[in-house]
Amino acid sequence: MAEEVANASQPWNVVVVVSDTLRTAYLGAYGNKWIHTPNLNKFAQDSVRFTNAHPECLPTIPTRRTLHSGRRAFPFRDYRPVPWDNVYIPGWQPLSSEESTIAEALVRQGYHTGFFADVPHYFVPGMNFTRGFLQWEFIRGQAEDRYNAIAHADETLLSRYRGGADRIRAHLVNVQPEQPEETWPAARTFRAAIKFVEQNYNNNPFYLYVDSFTPHETWEAPIHYYDLYGNREDREPIYLSAPYGPIDRNPEVEERLPSIRANYAGLVTMVDTWFGKLINTIDRLGLKQNTLVIFLSDHGTNFGENPDRVTGKPADFMYPGTMDIPMMLRHPDGVRAGSTRDEFVYSLDVPATVIAAAGVEPIGRIEGQSLLPLVEGGIGFEARDYLTCRYGNSVWYKDSKNWFFSGVDSQNSRLFDLEEDPMCQHNIAASAEDRCALARERILADAGGELQRYERQEKTDALGRPEFAEGR
To answer: Which one of 112, 308, 322, 326 is most buried, counting C-beta atoms within 10 A?
Structure first.
């Protein structure tokens, strides 16, 4: 396929859109009956939808290292935290300056490249993710962004919210939820991407990478989106996030779950609205037949619908709410539009697909597989028997029969029979040690025979970074 595209008179444009923390189960295209996602539903009708798509590592920054480089971040060797960040977890480190990026390969071979994101972690000093992009923009204002002064938050509004006081203040001064939808970071991110397309639609070929932090926390939707899913009298106090762990540890959260879910659902619909505007721009400018578009998420989140009644996305509870991700590919020729593919695929396969669709030579190795053979019906995709993933000090495994996760030290193992229990509600690890052993064996094999455990110490280094001890 890559050779065919490379020889074409008009190479394809390639657009990748990532939506952070977007649950598969909250999309109409994946069976949800109450979420309003008309644009993504239409996109699914025009696309091939992957039903067994999962991340190869978690969370935000490790996954982006994969998406920008085409190489596995798993199993997080040589973890060194960066200064001046607010997240310290194995694998959360800069894009390596020793290795090339997808964008660099494309721009070297004639592509015009653009990167637009409101994910604040991308732009922490030294993270190194803008390499290879001729145009890029950090859209400011997501709540964790060090942007506006939290000292200027309206103190009279704090009682409407629950959570860390500084996080609430940051949300109020950055997102400014009383302002019109068009001013919110997610809207401005897609508007920047739309402007890029309008400026470059005659500047073919182009590679556009869009990364929306929404619907990641903070979970307050514009009121007209909230109204689709919840009652205003039940909206407050607004939990901007749900605690990461079982509800039993935070019982006060349970009565607020309807409000939390309504705000989250509203943010999903907001992403749908602005994604639709981007797709409409591509189509309006006559680019549909010459542009491959991929939509995916990095991971999901949980609202207590699992055996441990976990909310959020804690690393040691790698349930489907976290691990299932939407992934859809719209082919320029409309090949197999509206169909599904059930093969095991990774987020790792997206950069491999970009390289193949562009018909360019990568710089260095590409460890995923192009999805184009699955879409076009050709050869070249080697079916996987299983998938593995690491998140913090936890690991995950899935094959056709088993869903498994545990600590890297094999403690706290959970195993679910996907044939009898596809929703992963009944842990059978105690009675299926042989199946757990197979999962551990394959995880370890994928990790090159070793999994390091990183233990955060009380001390910091000279730059103020937490220090970690490595163990086996």
So the answer is: 322
